[in-house]
Amino acid sequence: MELESKQLETDKEGVSETSKGSKICCSDLTVILNYMIAETKKKVSALRIGIFTVFMVVMVIVMLKSVVQITPILFVKLGQV
Asked: Are 79 and 56 in a shared domain?
């Protein structure tokens, strides 16, 4: 009987700890989002530079991937000539 009551107590504590963990996570997320929003309002040009940089990196990666996919076709055509 004592073991069951101790186990129930630890189970209850485990549930409360996980709910505390989610509250901490949500509060951290709220602070981060508030900071990001405030910074984007202050420094609009930095946001534009960041978005443009991400766009350029993605574009270069897509171009490199397409070149790698086309390369075998080019070698086959060169071999036929």
From this structure: yes
The total domain count for the chain is: 2
Residue whose C-alpha is closest to residue 39's, from 49, 52, 54, 24: 49
Question: pLDDT digits over 14-72, tens only?
Answer: 545 555 666 778 888 999 999 989 998 999 999 999 999 999 999 999 999 999 898 88
In the numeric block, the tokens 């101790």 are attached to 6
Separation of alpha carbons 25 and 17, rounded Å: 12
Question: What residues contact 39, with CB distance under 8 A and at least 6 apart?
Answer: 46
Length of the chain: 81
